[in-house]
User: Which sequence fits this backbone?
């Protein structure tokens, strides 16, 4: 590595000395760098340390030092994260791809041992537990038993990976949610390598909510699995120097408002502002009023407000949290000394940074809120939820009737055999997800609501499926220490597992009678969950209205049993004394919550929880581990298979071709999320994936979730674009993964049509609207698109991760010009599409906006080529990131 700016220096901390790359020394040469935002200073240090005159050149460092806050991003830099974080849904296909790369390397005459992570890779198994059993003392044991039965093959494969690859650690199932484990245990804040160089802890993760760790002052964000694999193998993450929006916090939260209410408010504000592809940085006098857990809650939902990251600086609260969570005294001293030495420590004397734009929120204006019924950015004040549900009911009711095959006239409502089931009934109340279960203030508040409700003689309604999925075992520790866990259990909020559960669709089945009541009467029922995502069809296939809420409100709605409740007038029920009990009667004060925090949460709880974190339980330890550096693929497996990405691959890439004679596979509207595209949730037995599994001897009861089968391409490609709520304009009035095979007009599944097109050698395109690919960082949304034969997507705008993933899988993203759209151009999707001049267009990337002319039938229009960087051009020319990296490693000495 070079040291052109002479910034290599020594930092003494206690008895130890560390090599650092001094930002102070650099700022003497470039004074403007002193006013860079915190996040860009972290990137600057990264470039100084990684300068090699290849991926990082002096001009890149100067460009960042002279950052123009207002300019549109156009300078590419290479960011090298310190580590990679994964969860099992996204992690299994990553390890599958690495195993496949070893095989491909062998077949090309290279050394398979070159395929090995070059940076620490940490995988937390947290996405596979499902809420089959809920509301009983046996919930945890039963769900764990089923989890291991369903996922034994996947878990065995991951245990093989831990032994076969260097730098690869696996945190076993039922430990906690990846992002909470990251914050409580894995995050270093300041990293030290084997050579004794200290530098900021940075990461990329294969989950959107990797951003949660930004609350600790650790810079990281979600990427697709394919990008993560490249990072593991030593490739830098190429990016444009971003714009940075400063978000000023003033004041203090009022009594009754929670961190969840705050983050829903922030999410709404930032979505409205428009921060996709930008960094958001929080500052201001309100910062010291927020606990570290509150900051984690806000940072977690950066994907929901659209930002690449939402970061807080390192300060005294960071050091306090590191101490609380059991980090060593040596690490605490290093973090504080390093941050202060580098000008990365925030206090009252920190000079103001320069931002692209600024926003301001007075914390005292935050009110109790939910978000829904289908998007996390659609905040609704608690007092307005009844009205909100009523406003959305007609549209939701029509969709329910269509799905049930009922006439579209007249209201359909029915008394349940369980009592009061009707439109608006809450059938799922879940305390779940990394956003809120990381935060003691809201978890303890939920316990106090349950405690007060018990004292009043109230009970959750019998038709509500209740669940508690803590983000880590520490939560159970402090709820037990405080005596609040038994109070929650009395209200049927029993621990169901330590994982993502309801927030990712692992909500499990509703009772048969409830399910029958909903479907036979086309009821629009609701879920209330403390999650971060509520996109349609995500939480449960039979639940059409989904509201995000704080954990104490989840308990309150379970007591009420309905979302169409007027909290100012309606009671939760009648207490044991015969008096009506209202929400205010069971709501905790800030002091009540803080008193529990002060007494029940100890450093010892964290140390005990993480002392033997990699050992796992008896189920994990009992798994037999395959041996060998190359995986022995099992031909009959329906969970793990050698993917086809390297079939027929040569040492040199083929020449880029134009797209000729293409047909449209689907015409999609606005806000098509990766939940719509990527296989997720339950596998229906009459779906292409279900039929495939049945043909391979798998019974429907053993189908498991799509997410659990991400290591098998034959299952996953059949589930791509198969979401039950997908609306393809080629088949108007129909929901689901259906299209028309245009040469004959025949209606069929998207997968079946894709196979017919591919057999005929016909390339495919997707037409889309605004925010195409928003949502989770699911690499299968891009992998599946590729395997279905789609060569290009043409949309009005893209979410950052999915656009990048498309390029990484060899699919070209194009963007309509600002006033153009499918509708304005009069496109039907029935046109034959021609895209010429692609090779020449790729040569212009990096010189400004590049437009390509597209011919659709008798219409012609220009569209922006969204291959954004020269590095992405290389990925596309090689057919994707993985073939590119494989060829680079093959040539490496």
Assistant:
């Amino acid at each position: 590595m070079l040291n052109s700016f002479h910034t290599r220096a020594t930092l003494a901390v206690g008895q130890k000395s560390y090599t650092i790359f001094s930002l102070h020394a650099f700022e003497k040469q470039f004074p403007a760098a002193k006013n860079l935002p915190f996040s860009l200073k972290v990137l600057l240090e990264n470039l100084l340390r990684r300068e090699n005159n290849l991926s990082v050149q002096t001009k890149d460092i100067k460009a960042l030092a002279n950052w123009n806050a207002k300019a549109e991003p156009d300078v590419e830099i290479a960011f090298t994260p310190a580590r990679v974080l994964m969860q099992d849904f996204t992690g299994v296909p990553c390890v599958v791809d690495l195993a496949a790369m070893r095989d491909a390397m062998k077949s090309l005459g290279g050394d398979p041992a070159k395929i090995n992570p070059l940076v620490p890779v940490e995988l937390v198994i947290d996405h596979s537990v499902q809420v089959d059993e809920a509301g009983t003392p046996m919930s945890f044991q039963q769900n764990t038993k089923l989890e291991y039965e369903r996922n034994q093959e996947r878990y065995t494969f991951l245990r093989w990976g831990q032994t076969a690859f260097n730098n690869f650690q696996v945190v076993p199932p039922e430990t906690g949610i990846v992002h909470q484990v990251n914050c409580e245990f894995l995050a270093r804040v300041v990293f030290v390598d084997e050579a004794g160089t200290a530098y900021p802890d940075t990461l990329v993760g294969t989950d959107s909510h990797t951003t949660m760790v930004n609350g600790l002052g650790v810079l990281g964000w979600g990427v697709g699995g394919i990008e993560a694999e490249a990072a593991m193998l030593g490739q830098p993450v190429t990016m444009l120097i971003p714009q940075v929006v400063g978000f000023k916090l003033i004041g203090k939260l009022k009594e009754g408002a929670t961190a969840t209410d705050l983050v829903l408010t922030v999410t709404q504000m930032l979505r409205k502002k428009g921060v996709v592809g930008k960094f958001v940085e929080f500052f201001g006098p309100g910062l010291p009023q927020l606990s570290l857990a509150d900051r984690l809650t806000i940072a977690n939902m950066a994907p929901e407000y659209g930002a690449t990251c939402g970061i807080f600086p390192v300060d005294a609260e960071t050091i306090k949290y590191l101490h609380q969570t059991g980090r060593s005294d040596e690490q605490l001293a290093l973090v504080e000394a390093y941050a202060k030495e580098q000008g990365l420590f925030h206090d009252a004397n920190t000079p103001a940074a320069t931002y692209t734009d600024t926003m301001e929120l007075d914390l005292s204006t935050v009110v109790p809120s939910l978000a829904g019924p289908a998007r996390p950015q659609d905040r609704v004040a608690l007092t307005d939820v009844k009205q909100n549900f009523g406003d959305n009911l007609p549209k939701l009711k029509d969709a329910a009737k269509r799905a049930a095959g009922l006439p579209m006239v007249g209201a359909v409502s029915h008394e349940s055999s369980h009592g009061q089931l009707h439109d608006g009934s809450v059938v799922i109340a879940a305390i779940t997800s990394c956003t809120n279960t990381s935060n003691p203030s809201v978890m303890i508040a939920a316990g106090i609501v349950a405690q007060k409700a018990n004292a009043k003689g109230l009970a959750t309604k019998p038709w509500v499926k209740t669940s508690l999925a803590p983000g880590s075992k520490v939560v159970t520790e402090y709820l037990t220490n405080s005596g609040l866990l038994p109070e929650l259990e009395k209200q049927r909020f029993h621990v169901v597992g330590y994982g993502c559960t309801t927030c990712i669709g692992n909500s499990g089945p509703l009772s048969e009678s409830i399910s029958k009541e909903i479907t036979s009467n086309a009821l629009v029922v609701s879920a209330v969950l403390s999650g971060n995502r509520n996109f349609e069809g995500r939480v449960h296939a039979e639940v059409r209205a989904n509201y995000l809420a704080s954990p104490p409100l989840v308990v309150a709605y379970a007591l009420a049993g309905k979302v169409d409740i007027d909290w100012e007038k309606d009671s939760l029920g009648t207490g044991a004394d015969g008096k009506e009990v209202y929400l205010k009667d069971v709501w905790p004060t800030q002091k009540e919550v803080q008193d529990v925090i002060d007494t029940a949460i100890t450093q010892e709880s964290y140390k005990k929880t993480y002392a033997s974190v990699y050992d796992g339980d008896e189920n994990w330890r009992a798994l037999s581990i395959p041996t060998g550096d190359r995986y022995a693929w099992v031909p009959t497996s329906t969970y793990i298979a050698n993917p086809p990405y390297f079939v027929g691959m040569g040492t040199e890439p083929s020449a880029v071709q134009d797209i000729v004679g293409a047909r449209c596979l689907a015409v999609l509207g606005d806000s098509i999320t990766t939940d719509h595209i990527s296989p997720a949730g339950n596998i229906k037995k009459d779906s292409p994936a279900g039929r495939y599994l049945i043909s391979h001897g798998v019974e429907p009861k053993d189908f498991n979730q799509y997410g659990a089968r991400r290591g098998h391409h034959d299952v996953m490609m059949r589930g791509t674009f198969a979401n039950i709520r997908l609306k393809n304009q080629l088949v108007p009035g129909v929901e689901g993964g259906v299209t028309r095979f245009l040469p004959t007009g025949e209606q069929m599944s998207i997968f079946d049509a894709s196979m017919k097109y591919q057999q005929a050698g016909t390339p495919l395109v997707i037409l889309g609207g605004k925010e195409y690919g928003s949502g989770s960082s699911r690499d299968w949304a891009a992998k599946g698109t590729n395997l279905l034969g789609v060569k290009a997507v043409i949309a009005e705008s893209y979410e950052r991760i999915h656009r990048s993933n498309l390029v990484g899988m060899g699919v070209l993203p194009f963007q309509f010009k600002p006033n153009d759209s499918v509708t304005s151009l009069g496109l039907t999707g029935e046109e034959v599409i021609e895209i010429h001049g692609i090779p020449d267009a790729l040569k212009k990337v990096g010189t400004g906006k590049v437009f390509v002319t597209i011919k659709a039938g008798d219409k012609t229009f220009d569209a922006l080529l969204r291959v954004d960087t020269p590095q992405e051009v290389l990925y596309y020319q090689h057919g994707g990131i993985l073939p590119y990296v494989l060829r680079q490693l093959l040539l490496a000495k």
Remarks:
- The chain is about 35% helix and 15% strand.
- The radius of gyration is 26 Å.
- The first strand starts at residue 8 and ends at 13.
